[in-house]
Amino acid sequence: ILNYDIMARFRRRTCIILLLFILFICSIMMALKTLRPDRAGFGDPFGLGLLPELQQRTVLLDNKQNSLNRVQGDTVTRVSNLHSIAVNTMKASMPPVNKLEEEASSPNYNFHIFYYSWFGNPQFDGKYIHWNHPLLPHWDPKIANNYPKGRHNPPEDIGANFYPELGSYSSKDPSVIEAHMKQMRSASTGVIVLSWYPPGMADENGEPTDDLVPVILDNAHKYNLKVTFHIEPYKDRDDRSMYHNVKYIIDKYGGHPAFYRHKTSTGRFLPMFYVYDSYVTIPEIWANLLTVSGSQTIRNTPYDALFIALLVEERHKHDIHRSGFDGMYTYFATNGFSYGSSHHNWASLKAFCDSNNLMFIPSVGPGYIDTSIRPWNNHNTRNRVNGKYYETAFSAALLVRPEIISITSFNEWHEGTQIEKAVPKRTGQVVYLDYKPHKPNVYLELTQKWSEKYRKEQEQWLM
């Protein structure tokens, strides 16, 4: 009886240990999947405003599957190798805890960060703007009926999964602009990529913001930062309107000391423009503007510049080259969502750019979550994993030795890609995500850390 009792206890203990071991292995696999979705393709596409070309197609599901197959076609071995290299290049996960928040490294003009000045509140704008973002319905009515409708009700309920330390601020508030410049400088970023619509135009949830550009330029100059422009897909954007708008920007803002110009390999200093959703316009239209023989050519004129197109699908790289663009960027902070945003494709994109005299600007981000405005889009959520996701993205970017790295984003709160300071907050119905166990400025510190690492590695590349 005693032996039977001992054996029974031994078997129970063995089963418990085995169960705990299985749970441990499962949790490790889930964490790695969150960090790097090796074979992930498109989840639910972002929504009507984010990928308009995908929404305009009548065969959306077929194209979605084709995109998925392209991403899945890459070998697991290549992805696994990239992941091991990325992990090995990471040293400490966090910068020193005692680092002073106010300590500002010199700005790194090869670190470009996307910035949005579209937020408003009653004190400065007479109403809330963007913080009261509507909940966007799914395009399939059957799915849409399963999710809430309406819009957010600030200041307690905002259109974001995180909550800003500055609250539901106005982008016009001088103290907010000052705080943002200070944060971006502390992160050792150098170039603000400002979301821009032509005068009198705005996104469907916002108000015109061009009149704020001089204030942003002045404040950027105080912190030795530069400003370039992220041209949004405004109504009737084509070769003619782009020519007039580029001319407007350069004529009005080009003389400001904070206006960014990039030194090219030929020694010229040219303005730079990121063009969001560039793929919506056919290459022939862009070629009118961006090639020397084009009917609306901007080349070899006082308004010549570097134009950087958004690459989403692999085929876009050929369109970008034919269009006469000077480079490409990937924008999305969702590893595995698109061909361009998938880290394991960056090496081949960089090789394509190198062989065609194009710039490749990978976009890194700290994570992604937009379920506060697209409650059906949890497939595309990327957990921050206490900063590990961000560091993995930086590691992948450094591996391809890019001339510039872009960061998505400083304050795109709707999509949870912000590195701006966020704080814990709980209201009656909402519990916001936060950066705990770290401080509100942890992503600024991580950015500063990788900016310095990039600078040191870049020196070695040039030797």
Automatic annotation (TrEMBL):
This is Glycoprotein endo-alpha-1,2-mannosidase. CDD domains: GH99. It is found in: Golgi apparatus membrane. Its EC number is 3.2.1.130. Keywords: Golgi apparatus, Hydrolase, Membrane, Signal-anchor, Transmembrane, Transmembrane helix. It catalyses: N-{alpha-Glc-(1->3)-alpha-Man-(1->2)-alpha-Man-(1->2)-alpha-Man-(1->3)-[alpha-Man-(1->2)-alpha-Man-(1->3)-[alpha-Man-(1->2)-alpha-Man-(1->6)]-alpha-Man-(1->6)]-beta-Man-(1->4)-beta-GlcNAc-(1->4)-beta-GlcNAc}-L-asparaginyl-[protein] + H2O = alpha-D-glucosyl-(1->3)-D-mannopyranose + N(4)-{alpha-D-Man-(1->2)-alpha-D-Man-(1->3)-[alpha-D-Man-(1->2)-alpha-D-Man-(1->3)-[alpha-D-Man-(1->2)-alpha-D-Man-(1->6)]-alpha-D-Man-(1->6)]-beta-D-Man-(1->4)-beta-D-GlaNAc-(1->4)-beta-D-GlcNAc}-L-asparaginyl-[protein] (N-glucan mannose isomer 8A1,2,3B1,2). It is an enzyme of class 3 (hydrolase). Belongs to the glycosyl hydrolase 99 family. Its main location: Golgi. The gene is Manea. GO terms for cellular component: Golgi membrane. It is a single-pass type II membrane protein. GO terms for molecular function: glycoprotein endo-alpha-1,2-mannosidase activity. It comes from the Eukaryota. Pfam families: Glyco_hydro_99 (PF16317). InterPro entries: Glyco_Hydrolase_99.
